[in-house]
Specification:
The complex is a heterodimer. By secondary structure, chain A is an alpha/beta fold. Helices cover about 35% and strands about 25% of the residues of chain A. Chain A has helices at about 45-55, 80-85, 100, 110-120, 125-140, 145, 155-170, 185-205, 215-220, 240-245, 250-255, 295-300, 315-320, and strands at about 5-15, 20-30, 35-40, 60-70, 75, 90-95, 175-180, 205-210, 225-230, 230-240, 305-310, 310-315. In chain A, helix 4 crosses helix 5, helix 5 packs across helix 7 and helix 7 runs parallel beside helix 8 (about 185-205). In chain B, about 45% of the residues are buried. Chain B is built from ten helices and twelve strands. Classes of the chains: A alpha/beta, B alpha/beta. The interface between A and B is large, with 44 and 38 residues.
Amino acid sequence: MENILDIEDLHVHFHTYEGTVHALGGVNLGLRRREMLGLVGETGCGKSVCALSVLRCIPEPGRIARGRISLDGENLLEKTEEEMRAVRGSKVSMIFQDPTSSLNPVLTVGEQLLDVITTHQPLSAKEARENAVEILRTVMLPDPEPALKKYPHQLSRGMRQRVMIAMALSCKPSVLIADEPTTALDVTVQAQILHLIKDLQAKTETSILLITHDVGVVAETCDRVAVMYAGKIVEIGDVISVLERPKHPYTVGLLDSIPKVQKEKPPLGLIKGTLPNLIDPPSGCRFHPRCAQVMDVCRAKEPELVEVGRGHCTACFLYSHRNSSVKNP
Amino acid sequence: MTGLLDVKGLRKYFVYGSLLGKTILRAVDGVDFSIEKGKTVGLVGESGCGKTTVARTILGLTEPTAGEVVFDGRDLFSLEKQEMMKLRSEMQMVFQDPYTSLNPRLTVEKIVSEPITTHTKLRGHQLRNRVQHLLEAVGLQGDHSRRYPHEFSGGQRQRIAIARALALNPKFLILDEPTSSLDVSVQAQILNLLRELQKTYDLTYLFISHNLNVVHYMSERICVMYLGKIVEEGPTNDVFEDPKHPYTQALIAAIPIAKPRHAKMDVVISGDVPSPANPPSGCRFRTRCSLAVELCSEKEPALRKIEFDRLVACHFVES
């Protein structure tokens, strides 16, 4: 299957006074057409930087040092800023974590939504307005017409996130990046928003990259999942095989540390140590200082992604001797 | 049932407004529960349901509007100021955000020793030893004591906050979302630590969280709160296996489970939590409930016993 979005060997550096932070150290990731790919990892592992690089919106002092990001065959890193503006919002759009701080508090919902629509589509004022009401209806915002005149503070958090989703989908993008879209919401509202995103995906055939720290959210919504650790993808594959038969020691540790609803309550599994400092990342495999199964080769060489099952790849030397490496899963 | 802590009819109203009129926000509106010694009771609910207000009112950090809290046989709200201060050393709290609950200008040693110098006469060498011992008990190193909070990660800061809470050998700890700002792997470390400490020091916990997995893991009993009231209470395993109240059912169904082929009830409730300043009449959940009929808007369901050790506030649940 051909990928809609391909990220190849992406390196992102942040130049700070203390040194260069190697936020992404060679990320390879492909988003297939019409799939929902979950990107999971803990705080600071580079999930959001990865998403922002696709939009070329990395905040200062970040730089894309090398790599290639191709959307539908076009390399986004070679585009001019002017060309990028046409991509953002129309071909690739993004939903952020906190709907309260990502909406403009002094503009009405209608003004913000119409802004996105009229920037990318040649529509008359009336058509744009009809379009806006229609899209608010698809995200199940109650009373869409009067909602256009409301300010963000007059809506609840769940409703604001619906408005954000409406804005992101208003130009029918081929790729939607959802960066922790439900983290700021309560569980019952989270369930509503996840249902909505899934429904809309089925209707619009958008490919979605869902970034989250919650493995549960991935298990319930995504087709495939990529696990990230310290700026690298350590494991990727379809949700069932990765979550039921995790291979990489980090994925195993991450899944063991989640409390499960069951009668017996044994102590939770632990990953010893803490996240490495990415100014001076560990040599070889970045997980080796915390890994219980570390070998000599792990300190010396960086593991490549190898296939361990159908479409299930992991970057770990425990599996590399009997499998061939895969370039872009 | 009398436990170490008994909360009866606890109410806390916040009154605000202007010349044009006053609004009464019923943050906690009649809450009863009790915690047995050495056990953990979990308090769950969504943001704004009054969980934290319950905690703060129990400790006397805000004045209650009505009700009583009996701790170890003494009614907290009728105590003199001095007696209350003494009793406070037996009840401590760990807050949600370790980035704002530690004073950035104090060293770890100062932070952990502050309660000790306030309440006891321990000073000098003995005080330093006590602080070292506490830091080691929560899994930090003794030489961390001269550092400042910004030098620590979120998980380590939460350990400092726990060391501070343990400084006076309390009997009872209120843990208010102690892991919700932490990553899962760090959360696991803190939860394991809290369970070990509970065993070692025979502690009693009130564990507050919006994360049902975590509450399930930590507590023997669970109280589910909705808009200032408890809607269901019972032993944790029973409530999770067979939730009775429609809200509890929806809440449990809404937890994302990290197992891809997990079969679950498909109960998605619509809408948002109404404002506690203007709660719906009758049953407060009726605006989002699929079972709601006229009776629910007229009469408020009382929290009643439906089977051994299970309490539910819903008109439709049969005994």
